[in-house]
TrEMBL record:
Keyword Cytoplasm: yes
Segments forming domain C-CAP/cofactor C-like: 299-437
Subcellular location: Cytoplasm, Cytoskeleton, Microtubule organizing center, Centrosome; Cytoplasm, Cytoskeleton, Spindle pole
Name of the molecule in the record: TBCC domain-containing protein 1
Region (Disordered): 1-21
Matches recorded under PANTHER family: TBCC DOMAIN-CONTAINING PROTEIN 1
Organism: Gossypium arboreum (Tree cotton)
Keywords: Cytoplasm, Cytoskeleton
Family to which the UniProt record says this protein belongs: Belongs to the TBCC family.
Keyword Cytoplasm assigned: yes
PROSITE patterns: C_CAP_COFACTOR_C (PS51329)
SMART domains reported in the protein's UniProt record: CARP
Length: 567
């Protein structure tokens, strides 16, 4: 159990609202994995747009909104309506919610809790923090000299630029993003509380109240708990609900009181985070950020930063291999950033994963139960077993997918291919079960492409680009499909029972695989039985080695041999 949050009060103002000593943090998940590029969900006035939704469904008998009702009310397609529910389920803070535990066929009918849905739709107006500008713009331009009209803004973070610009020093840090997200919530807090509130008869200024249950739904956006500690329920941190009798429903609280307390709490947290950032920039050892920057992209410098609340960062791996098992991780979230010419293995059960700014690499993620986002990658092979995956602004990549939901493609994608999942490791099935992935359901070839424009970025959009149709992915030719073998480095420690790929292969890919295996067996037999003299056998062997080496480099599979190198 986490220690109780002790409120502090200002000695100079005896009437001040108690402020908890623990820092209030925004939940990253809705902002990192919950933003959709559906233009009809971007409201100029969210309160005006969402009030009809609240009025229609705010009754005990209709507190959940299903796909059909959502599509009708927002005037969006059924596919987009289901996408909203699936995305919301992947970022919800309440694990027991029926939408989180729903079977794939039941998502549409179970629907979303009205208050969670309102908060989810409200933050679709959020604008992401821009990367810090590079001091030497000429050096960056030199790396990416031929920019198209799209590249000028959508590919402003090309992986090649990231390498040249030492990405982590010029991308927003975790602290910068937290400040940006808290500032957004601070600005929109009054609107958000009004949408969660209930109307009661009485004095006009006290006519809007918030129940404890409604207040707890703010846990979708914010949470208390310092790094390394458990998350504290919001009602335990709030002075107006903290001492409520668990056997008696707590009395509703005026929205104005909740608003004032949260504003003070956010202001206090912003001040604390800003002080830590300033201390770090000034070189003070006490100013610890949650990031570990890895400026030198070399095997010796590549490492992960871990904490219970923060994601694990895998960063700067270059021309090497990187392997992590479940026992190596203290976090259920991983970010793979700025890795090049390498093979990355994260063989663990995870909740969330982000792959960003990687090139010429092979990346294997174990089992991701919530969501994966792959962004700004080039010539990368990604092997993923996940509930859902979103792919944005990538080029010439191949995705080998075992996914329970339709893969989502957004932004400026070019020459992408998808294929069925193609590997396994000894604990894979155990990890799939742990995070709730069903291996008998694989929707790898049902891509959903929406919007070249990302309305959540803060960049200017050239005229006409919004009319461009997004480029979807094509299916990998079955004759080009091969299994990916994960080396068993930990054979003596392995306790898993998985002996083969748990995701069934489609007939075309299975037939091709069987044909290739048969051809290989026949060639081996012919070579063994060939009546060649010893010198001719040596010549044949030498020629095979040359062709094999050429194939390794041409196919990119040379990266797999990095695993055999000593670090």
């Amino acid at each position: 159990m986490a220690d109780p949050i002790e409120p502090s009060t200002s000695s100079s103002d005896p009437n001040s609202i108690p402020i908890p000593t623990a820092i209030l943090h925004p939940r990253r998940e809705p902002f990192e994995h919950g933003l959709l590029t559906i233009q009809k969900l971007i409201f100029n006035d969210p309160v005006q747009a969402l009030t009809p939704l609240k009025q229609k469904f705010a009754s005990p008998s209709t507190e959940r909104v299903d796909s059909a009702a959502l599509a009708e009310l927002l005037q969006i397609s059924f596919d987009h309506s289901r996408l909203v529910l699936e995305t919301l389920a992947s970022v919800l803070h309440s694990e027991p919610d029926p939408l989180v535990t729903a079977l794939p066929d039941d998502v549409d009918s179970i629907g979303a809790d009205l208050r969670d849905l309102i908060l989810f739709l409200y933050i679709q107006s959020y604008k992401r923090l821009l990367p810090r500008s590079h001091k030497d713009s000429a050096a960056v331009a030199d790396v990416w000299p031929s920019m198209s009209a799209f590249d000028g803004y959508l590919s402003a973070l090309s992986p090649l630029q990231l390498v040249r610009s030492n990405s982590r020093r010029f991308m927003p840090s975790q602290a910068d993003e937290e400040v940006h997200q808290l500032s957004y919530l601070q600005k929109h807090l009054a609107n958000i509380l009004s949408l969660l509130s209930e109307h009661v008869e009485g004095e006009s200024e006290e006519s809007l109240v918030l129940t404890m249950e409604g207040f707890e739904h703010l846990g979708f956006l914010i949470q208390f708990g310092d790094k390394g500690s458990e998350v504290v329920p919001l009602s335990q941190a709030a002075p107006f609900f903290a001492n409520s009798d668990p056997d008696m429903p707590a009395a509703p609280v005026p929205v104005s009181q909740v608003h004032d307390w949260l504003l003070q709490t956010i202001a206090s947290s912003l001040e604390s985070i800003t002080e830590k950032v300033s201390a770090k920039e000034n070189g003070s050892p006490s100013g610890s950020d949650q990031d570990v920057a890895m400026a030198d992209a070399t095997p010796s410098s590549a490492k992960a930063s871990l904490s219970a609340r923060s994601p694990c960062f895998v960063e700067g791996v270059s021309k090497s291999s990187y392997v992590k098992q479940a026992s190596d991780l203290n976090s259920s979230s991983v970010k793979v950033i700025n890795c090049h010419d390498s093979t990355i293995y994260i063989l663990a059960p995870l909740r969330y994963a982000i792959i960003y700014g990687c090139s010429d690499a092979t990346i294997v993620l174990g089992a991701v139960g919530k969501a994966v986002r792959v962004e700004h990658c080039e010539r990368v092979h990604v092997i993923i077993a996940a509930k859902r995956v979103c792919i944005a602004n990538c080029r010439e990549c191949v995705f080998f997918l075992g996914v329970n939901q339709r893969p989502l493609f957004v932004g400026d994608n070019h020459k992408l291919q998808v294929a069925p999942y193609n590997t396994y490791y000894s604990q894979l099935e155990e990890h799939l079960t742990e995070v709730g992935i069903v291996s008998t359901i694989n929707r790898w070839d049902e891509a959903l492409s929406i919007s070249v424009i990302d309305p959540h970025d803060s960049l200017s959009h050239p005229a006409g680009v919004s009319d461009a149709q997004p480029e979807s992915a094509t299916c990998l030719d079955p004759d080009q499909f091969t299994n990916f073998l994960i080396p068993n480095w930990f054979e003596n420690e392995s306790t898993g029972s998985t002996k083969d790929n748990p995701f069934p292969l489609p007939d075309a890919y299975m037939t091709s695989q069987q044909r290739n295996q048969k051809n290989l067996s026949e060639i081996k037999q012919m070579l063994r039985e060939a009546p060649l003299e010893e010198n001719r056998k040596r010549e044949l062997s030498s020629a095979l080695h040359v062709y094999f080496k050429d194939w390794l480099y041409a196919s990119g599979n040379i990266r797999q041999l990095y695993c055999l190198q000593g670090d």
